[in-house]
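One such given next:

>
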Amino acid sequence: MVLLHVKRGEESQFLYETSTGVRVEQLGYELVTIYNGRLKVSRVCSEIEELAKHGTMLPPDMLGLTDEQVEELHLVDEWADKCVPSGGWRFNRDAVGRRNGRQPQPKMVEVLEKAVADAKEIVSKKLTTEGKPMTQRTVQEALDLLRGAVMIVYPMQLPPHDPIRMEFNNTEDLTGTQASLEVIEPAKVQLWFAGKLMLNDKLLGEIVGQNEKTKIIVKLAKLNEGAPGREPVVSEDARRQMMAHAYRRQEELKKLEQDDDDQYLDSAWSDSRSLKRQVHGLENVKFKFTK
């Protein structure tokens, strides 16, 4: 299997195993599905962390309003009493006014927090340094884990307008958000290898060769985004070693500059009579005085 080290810009994303016989167009779809899936896991984790602190999302017409404004406009959160966490709740006001403040009880909070930690671990970028490839099933496993935890804490489900429920149903609207800039549409993905665009109608083997044990770096980019930066000639580890060596050498030179010019005169090799004493056998002669 060909091992791909997938990057977005200069940032490592994940490892992926494929074959030389796959078409670039299909490969692009597979890679961007995993990439977007990891972004979805990250968004859901972020929202679940807020859910564990401040409860479910307020209706759209109540977002960001103060208690006085809600009362003045006669607005009511009709979903608050329908979507109650298991074991009850305690009030913890959301300072930004997005959620209703009905925080689950501590044991249920632990369920949500553990699911978030485990999901992040499943799709972590550090798996690239551990040599562990990622698949679409891996991403789905993380999402299923998060979905299961939310169902345990909220058996009556979340309000339909809650972003977590929308993410699980694939009905999320990211328009105007930073997240929308990160997502890559499958129809607009481009793959780059060694500074060159990989054409969709080509097979991977036509670009990288037929060796199934090849390991290459592939970079994801959006259509018309331009070529991503080339990989540095020197690896990051090698660069750090070179910098450390240069620093040690610089410190050694500083010490030499600070030493006195005649300090070498204290050394045995600088004694002009040393050779003469060696010839006459007078080196290390000890005298014993007697009374």
Q: What stands out?
A: The mean pLDDT is 88.
